[in-house]
Every structure is written in structure tokens, then in C-alpha cells.
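From the pipeline queue, job 12 of 40. The input is one protein chain; the requested action is below.

Action: predict structure.
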Amino acid sequence: MDAQTILEIQPALTAFLHELGGCFCQARTRAYLEVYVAGQLSDLDRKSVGPITDAAGVPPRSLQEFLSLFKWDEAALRDRLQRRCATGCNGAARPVATTGRGPAWRLRPVGSSASGPRPEQRGRD
């Protein structure tokens, strides 16, 4: 993406990333998520830590620590993303199993019934 496109989607991207904010323990962790995502969406030739931090004006070590050391609630992040995908699919996704870590979601084929039988659960005997 070029800089103009990123500026155009920035409000929606910021809102989306704020939805995930509760999954991160510290505010600085959330800030590095925004830096990392913006770097991945940018038109940088290389999407590694160095070019991303140079473009964002943050210390490289800080983003390296975000990617390797900082803690976040992976299960909560996964669940939020799954819920967002399910609601954004206009009902084309539904939970097929509930585990100790939250529901597993699958997309229904187009035209299938929401009340139809659940698909086989993979990896279960």
C-alpha cells in the first residue's frame, strides 16, 4: 500500500486495532502493534524490524521486544478475531465446537442452512 491508501484506511485500522487493545497487558505493547501493522501495510521494500522502525521513528529494540518478549492474551485475541470474522461474514460463520479456549468457528458453504448439522470436528476420534 502507498502512503495515501494508508492515510485513507487509518481511521478504520485504528478502530480495529483498538478492539484488540484489551488483549495486551500494557499500553506500550498496544502502540507497537500499531507500528508493526502499519509497517506491514506500508510500501517499504523490506518489512523487517529495521525498515519499519526507521520509518516509524521508534527504537528497533522496542519492536524486537514486542515481537519476541512482550506478553498478550493469545486466546482472547484469537476469540475476538474469530467473533469479528463471524459477524463480518453476515452469518456465513458459526461456532462448531466449544473448547476450553473458546468456540471454534467454521464458514458455512454458500446456501447452506444455519441450523444444519455441524461438520465433523477434525482431530477427534
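Job complete. The beta strands are 93-99, 102-107.
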